[in-house]
Specification:
The structure is a single chain. By secondary structure, the chain is mainly alpha-helical. It has 2 domains: about 40 residues; about 50 residues, no CATH class. The protein has 4 helices and no strands.
């Protein structure tokens, strides 16, 4: 096993020390999700297919809400559609997070 490179460790610490409140909350949710995933993992294919179906339905509803709920139709670029936190398409009010 290779030793952990000090530069990577410093960059990681710098990143974590300079997180905005919104990104800090997202990291907390991600860590919580990983803990729950490891603790309650179920390999049942039916459960995974149900989860996939629900994710598709919710994702489609969010997409429709994002693009067609205003007075004019908005076209989203592929990466912000996938990522949902693009700095180019974010409004100034949402940049605080």
């Amino acid at each position: 096993m290779r030793p952990f490179h000090p530069l990577i460790f410093r960059r990681t610490l710098h990143y974590l020390a300079n997180l905005s409140l919104g990104r800090f909350v997202l990291w907390c949710y991600f860590i919580w999700w990983l803990v729950v995933l490891v603790r309650y993992f179920d390999p049942s294919p039916l459960l995974w297919l149900t989860s996939l179906g629900l994710s598709l339905i919710i994702g489609f509803a969010l997409f429709v809400n994002t693009t067609a709920s205003g007075a004019s139709r908005m076209r989203l670029e592929p990466w912000p559609t996938f990522r949902r936190s693009s700095r180019r398409s974010a409004s100034p009010a949402s940049r605080r997070w």
